[in-house]
Amino acid sequence: MARCNNCSAPLLPNTQYCSYCGVRNDVDLLGKHDYRVVSRQSERICPECNVHLQTVALELQPPLHIERCSSCFGLFFDPGEVETLLENSVSPVFSVNQELLGNINKDRYQKNKPVKYLECPVCLNMMNRVVFGHKSGVVIDQCRAHGIWLDGGEISHLLEWKKAGGQILHEKKQAELRQRKRQPNQSRVEVFGKSSSTYGGQYESLGGEEGLLEIVFGLIFKVFD
């Protein structure tokens, strides 16, 4: 369990505020990642606090430069940088621990967190709210052109998600979705394509009588469209 940097009291998993001294803590970087401040004032603006973000370099190989708010401790990543941090911070995972994933989200997911849309720190356009990954429990703020904003505590949530096999689960889900998108096209090729020389071949490929009915109804609807 993380502890308050000011009074060392234990911190709850889903909060940055110490219930004993009231200090807000950086639960994502301090004590977890070695970093150095490159610039104390970048051109990018914190979407929460409306102050200039600072640029920090995480001591990875090569170093990863991200923006950090010294007030709310939110983090801004350029496109692809969150994935780079997760890849470099978590040892290879080969199985999914469903129970652990459930416990992580139960502890960390903030059900009562107010929903609000934030401006991109670069272009100042409103960002989209997107679930980071399947069963990650983290809704990110994303500007497709410039990157991702994570509130304080969310990168820790994602690190735990990946350690529990969440990335594997997400990749399996994406593969299933891609397969579902391909299947209608494949069926259409089998029915109306020129690869089969006889109608009977198409009839068999769709499962006999049920397939034939599907073809007939499809042609009827096509006529009346």
Describe the model.
By secondary structure, the protein is of the alpha+beta class. The protein has two domains: 41-170, no CATH class; 194-225, no CATH class. The chain is built from six helices and seven strands, in the order E-E-E-E-H-H-E-E-E-H-H-H-H. The chain has helices at residues 81-89, 98-108, 154-163, 166-192, 199-205, 209-224, and strands at residues 35-39, 54-58, 64-68, 75-77, 128-131, 139-143, 147-150. It has a seven-stranded antiparallel β-sheet, covered by helices on one side. Strand 6 (139-143) and strand 7 (147-150) form a beta hairpin.
Q: What is the terminal-to-terminal distance?
A: 62 Å
Q: Secondary-structure element sequence?
A: EEEEHHEEEHHHH
The description of the largest β-sheet is:
7 strands, antiparallel
Strand content: 5-15%
Q: In terms of structural class, how would the helical and strand content be classed? A: alpha+beta
How many beta-strand elements? Answer: 7
Count of the separate structural domains: 2
Low-confidence sequence ranges: 187-207, 220-224
Task: For the largest sheet, list the strands in their spatial order.
Answer: 1-2-3-4-7-6-5
Mean pLDDT: 81
Rg over C-alpha atoms, rounded to the nearest angstrom: 25 Å
Total helical elements: 6
Q: Helical content, roughly?
A: 25-40%
Shape: globular
